[in-house]
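Lest this sound abstract, we let one protein speak, letters for residues, whole numbers for local backbone shapes, and leave readers to judge:
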Amino acid sequence: MAQTECPNLLVRNGGNVLGHMHAREELARVVQRVYYAPKRSELLGAEVPASIDEVIRVIARTSKWIVTPIGDTALNALGLDAQVPARAAYVSSGPHKTYAYGPYEIELRHHANRNRIDRSPMTRTIIQALKTLDRGSVGERTIQLLARNLSKEGVGLSSTRPMD
């Protein structure tokens, strides 16, 4: 069992410990080899699942892939679109894969790293969002939102870490 940067998500490294905990409903399975400790919302009176972003971060980290949201997923991640896409799409340094997670599909599309490896995760996401938007739809409000996101993380190059 490995603890991740997403504290309520666990990755199966071997053995059946997580499988037994899943059978006792102490853990919930997200996708194969990825589990999370269910949290219950007092307000909703229901279990709160792990977010798609947490799931993809864990999958990418354990597989040593660089993953960046694309299309509507990138727009939603940056706050440019409030609608959560039913199919979350990411470009990845790993193989093309699709995961089913609750009512959502998570699609990883293989893409070479040459344009992403030396950029920060936020910069990569902004580039993908700009590729999605039409030139005419990038107005002052969009530029201000993107600038706010860049100022939170900093602009430019980052260390070449495998995932974020």
User: Anything to note?
Assistant: Residues 136 and 142 are 11 Å apart (CA to CA). The longest strand covers residues 104-110. Confidence is low (pLDDT under 50) at residues 155-164.
